[in-house]
Write a structure and sequence with these properties.
Chain lengths: ~575, ~575
């Protein structure tokens, strides 16, 4: 069935749930009027439906491959990429000074989701470039910006991130790649990097690698790491692609899914690179890139959840099997209906959290407010981990709705699961996200968390008198979250880590309840969103009790169980 | 890493958790002494580790394929099958009269799990044959038994089940295949069947299809369906494979996983068949086959959970990444430890439930007791659905433990998920299992459920004074289950169906708590099982609160949400 971009859903979210008017009311984003926003969502939606969605199966059936050192991409991907670039969708949020549109990140986030729902493996390419644009905007010298930003924003060149090495995955500080000063303003970068998404392609003029490596005087660990721009083709005096750099794609991974996206092992042999940011300041620069990339990956999960849901709903509405209390199709069976309703309710929850995070990022950019920065920082790991977990869970349920057909590849239901599975792993595993939430994001003693919980409780309080059946579950769950947070911030780090994943889930559960409540109230009693909120609040939100108990268990019992006990 | 068959785990379960001594204390199974049982588990375990486990990747990398109408199986599968057949593992529980060992089903169930953990796609073959043996033992004429049972039990011939047609999946009664009386004691069977696991192979002398079809005077629906034995090669007067029957494999499915198992579309064109059971009594005969096959499929889920757990643990013990509070390997990280502990605790819970179900089946066989029959009937859908759900969940966590390597196919972590995914679908989807639990299995007004809850509460009561921290969570969760059951049996069927899946999960959660408690008590304070029980009881069992709330929501809210609302 054809993918339908969630254009009206985003309009509703912006107007009634996450308040984009806050963002467009700032000087920085005043040009993003409601008309502009609508036009952009509609135009992007059209491109996703018409150009990108037809490519989704191509990527799966005809994976990117390496031929004599050259990456050949899946059929149609070159045209799809050209459409993305020509539409200006890569540089939507980038600085107009270099050709970007300077639009709110909230809009880019929405368009990214649509592109991901249409064709995830291709969408990952501009997502990487967007992260690189942002890192360069914040950390590169003017000289580098002048050369690279216009090309990246126009899409003529693509960007990649090179962090991981075989012995340095989640522990980036263990990396061994080296950089030596050439004495002419350039550096010689040497090392092997793995899991490089879109490490090469056959449709962009150049591929620009941001590579983490250690200078000779760099200390061990993350504090001794620097960031370098290492282009595939070295720009000549006019800024056009020149001679080939000393780097190559060694191999492509054979993966569970996302076959259209070439995942490369990259080898740098004294490749010419330019320092981005300060010496030994690589991690700070990389974090800029990673934070928004994390939200972007959360959006990938939501994108697949939306697509898998549409796919399953379409199948279920056509499929007849047995007698149901309502209609011929299997949507009439209570259990199938439960699955579909859950899929839709979870997708809404995850999307709202991501959209709220994007608004917080825009408000940080527009106002430099410490509160908004803290809000964005708090919501980023939740948006990433919950969005991708929901992507996996909704894809799983999508397969289940299909019955036997779900296991047959031709249906396409299984591809969603295979493609989305990696999103819970890359850009920091969901375990890492959860640890980030309970450690770094709680260094304020829980202040940012309490501010958000206050907001939720105040809102629920306001709805309580008129609609206690909707408001009370949200208020009560928020109270549980508050108590759990109060407990959490008093614990040692490792006791927090032991409950980090259920804590993040608990937080997301409550946030989902809050946004469902906002949507129900805005859409009115008896509306579709009202009914969907009912499903979420009374079937899924009650999970908060079990999650809170899990969090409060601490770490001790896990260590009492020795490695030998685990192997027994 | 090498698969290690859970031999000692089964010995412990039999001795201390599910009480196999009840079974071996009956006249029927008195020959299955503790020594016999041990020897069988060990011998089967050895075969699984040495012969079957090395085939697991072969099946994935070199799928079964159809060449000019002939199925070619994966490299080594013929030898693996021969080892299974020669070991007598197919007919372990079959009647000695026809060459079987007459052993308890509990033992067969354990060996099936081990074979499935070693190589799931090959194990599915004898699992199907075992179901066929049982159906023939119960329903076939002596003439048919004499021809088929010895060959099936020895493994010279294989058996399949043919239920599904494109328009008749979960709704078996909608099938259109026909059978006409040839007037010579045989029938002409015509129709197309889909999803036929191991519909053909190149290593057995013959393939025996049990096919559901409708006689000319068969009414619509399940009451007009009859069961036929339709062999690939028609046995001659001496019972040896003779002329080819009018049937063929039309195509094989291209599936998400389980590539080593050929899933066939079968075409019957007036094929010669023999009636099994009474005319129009096909569903009754099929149910015999299906009930134990359901437990067998639950065992497949547990098998994969065990294998995926071992695989992930082995990786985690080798992998070094970052500083941990305990040792160099990533098992020292609290979040990784949490995942591994959960995986192990869930696998134990699912395996105990399946083993308890197998014991109930054996007690039914040995004593014809109505209580044991009701217990077996109650536990079967729980063992199937929970076992396979845990298979999926543990495989998912196994991928997560591997980090980026989990998404790379060479690691093998992803194969577990791909292979096991279908187990939640075939032999009745897990939704169907849940509906069976809340409807058919509650036709007694909940009597069988209450009997089991009584048993759990009495046990927990007995442990309370000495170990309240372990016993109280079990007792309280059992009370929640009792109250939820009391509510459930008062509802209309469709209100039950709307909460069927969370109800089954709730039941499984409580049972898991019960068996963990038994294990902890038997193994003693501070033992590995004690510590694992602690993890389950305080981290996972608390989910029961949210599940109970979900169950009690009924169906109304799901139907208020119209198809149009779902598509909005």
């Amino acid at each position: 069935m054809a993918y339908r971009a969630p254009v009206s859903e985003y309009k509703f979210l912006f107007d009634h749930v996450v308040g984009l008017d806050k963002v467009t009311g700032t000087d920085r984003f005043e040009e993003a009027t409601r008309d502009v926003t609508s036009a952009i969502l509609e135009e992007a939606g059209k491109m996703c439906e018409e150009v990108l969605a037809p490519l989704q199966r191509n990527g799966d059936l005809h994976p990117a491959r390496l031929e004599n050192g050259v990456v050949r991409t899946s059929p149609g991907f070159g045209d799809g990429y050209a459409a993305i670039a020509e539409g200006g969708w890569i540089g939507m949020a980038a600085s107009p000074e270099y050709g970007g549109m300077g639009l709110p990140y909230s809009l880019q986030n929405a368009v990214n989701e649509m592109m991901g729902g249409a064709c995830l493996s291709l969408q990952l390419n501009p997502l990487m470039t967007q992260g690189q644009i942002e890192a360069l905007e914040h950390h590169a010298s003017d000289a580098l910006k002048d050369i690279y930003l216009p090309k990246l924003i126009s899409g003529e060149w693509c960007g990649t991130m090179n962090l991981t090495e075989p012995q340095a995955g989640s522990d980036v500080g263990a990396l061994r790649s080296k950089a030596e000063d050439n004495g002419d303003g350039t550096y010689a970068v040497t090392g092997q990097k793995i899991y490089i998404s879109w490490g090469d392609n056959d449709f962009s003029e150049n591929v620009c690698h941001l590579v983490l490596a250690r200078l000779p005087d760099g200390v061990d660990g993350t504090k001794g790491i620097s960031l370098f721009m290492v282009p595939k083709l070295i720009p000549d005096a006019d800024g056009n692609p020149g001679v080939a750099n000393s780097l190559k794609v060694v191999s492509l991974e054979h993966k569970l899914g996302l076959h259209g996206s070439p995942t490369a092992v990259m080898q740098y042999d004294g490749a010419t690179g330019w320092l981005v940011g300060k010496p030994h300041g690589g991690m700070a620069a990389m974090f800029t890139m990673m934070n928004n990339a994390r939200l972007g990956v959360g959006g990938q999960g939501i994108a697949v959840a939306e697509a898998a849901y549409q796919h399953a709903l379409s199948y279920a509405r056509d499929r007849k099997q047995g007698k149901t209390p309502s209609g011929d199709a299997i949507t009439g069976h209570a259990d199938v209906r439960r699955m579909l309703a859950q899929m839709k309710a979870e997708t809404f929850a995850a999307r709202s959290i991501a959209a709220a995070c994007a608004v917080a990022i825009d408000m940080s950019t527009a106002t430099e407010s410490a509160e908004w920065k803290a809000r964005a920082a708090l919501l980023t790991p939740i948006a990433k981990a919950f969005g991708t977990d929901i992507g996996i869970e909704v894809s799983q349920q999508g397969i289940q709705v299909h019955g036997g057909m779900g296991f047959v590849e031709e249906t396409g239901a299984a591809q969603f699961l295979r493609d989305v599975r990696v999103t819970a792993i890359y850009e920091g595993t969901n375990g890492i996200q959860s640890m980030d939430l309970v450690a770094r994001k709680m260094m304020d003693g829980g202040e940012a968390a309490y501010a958000l919980i206050d907001e939720i409780e105040a809102y629920a309080e306001g709805v309580k008198s008129s609609h206690p059946d909707l408001a009370e579950p949200v208020f009560n769950a928020a109270e549980t979250l508050r108590e759990t947070t109060e407990w959490l911030v008093e614990q040692d780090l490792n006791d927090r880590f032991a409950g980090a994943v259920p804590y993040l889930r608990l937080f997301a559960r409550v946030l989902g309840g809050y946004y469902h409540l906002c949507a129900a109230r805005a859409d009115g009693e008896g509306s579709a969103r009202w009914k969907l909120a009912n499903v979420y609040l009374h079937r899924l939100l009650p999970e908060h009790v079990g999650l809170a108990a899990h969090v409060r268990r601490g770490a001790a019992d896990l260590y009492e169980l020795t490695d030998e006990d685990l192997a027994a």
